[in-house]
């Protein structure tokens, strides 16, 4: 990636292609996921009106006074949903790296529905905990839910692409993600009137935990960086009209590290590059069903190779990672 453009994949073309063309396009995605696991998805089918509505409502929410935002705060440390104020999370801690808390605030929401089959107390207390909705702005909840539903559908379609890329049946992952425990996070990186503390970033270096992440960064913004195969950090530019997709730790485990869950961070650009300015993004973290067992795929093992990872359950794995990031 250091010497060529950031890869952009046309999802609509894939979805309407014949099986032979789908295999060719899937091979392209396989190559990208082997190298960095980051790509942009264009022609994704999510209505622009849905995107614009949630973006505007999130911006209006972060414009509220601290007291008004705190009315939607998570009720206790470790609660997954609701408002999380500035400097209350350090993502680098998920990798056992001690760092100052991240320079961001967020609003977080969980699944829109709870399957009747879910009875695990930990699942009910964590992934299916109620979202603490804000009282303002008007229309926030409706815009949020519409975007969440659209991104849940998009994630399922990307998983079909991933199945083809791994030479699996296109519907292979569907039984693992028919009741996903995904989360949507609106992120605001506030204006920085004073310099950050030594080592303090807008988001510390981390990998994501689930199957894939769908990111919508602010147009023209800077700061998102990933580690490339040569060990250097390189910028991930926002692509107009596209989402940035990256795979997470569970997909890396599923593929026995054939696909990489790439380390990424949000740095503080120089003041000349808008480093002190406010920045917003939306991140949808797609996570398989709570009780989905993630075991290394036979298709990702060459003859004589053994699995690097034992089976894990999606929900408990996510919960352990999430709790490790509290500042």
Can you describe what's shown?
There is one protein chain. The protein is an alpha+beta fold and about 325 residues long. The chain has one domain: Jelly Rolls (Sandwich). About 25% of the residues lie in helices and about 20% in strands. The protein contains eight helices and 14 strands. Strands 1-2-10-7-12-5-4-3 form an eight-stranded mixed beta sheet. The chain has a four-stranded antiparallel beta sheet with strand order 6-11-8-9, with no helix packed on it. Strand 8 and strand 9 form a beta hairpin. Helix 2 crosses helix 6 and helix 3 crosses helix 6. The protein is globular. The two termini are about 35 Å apart. The model has no long low-confidence stretch (mean pLDDT about 85).
Write out key terms for the chains shown.
14 strands; alpha+beta; Jelly Rolls; 4-stranded antiparallel β-sheet; 8-stranded mixed β-sheet; 327 residues
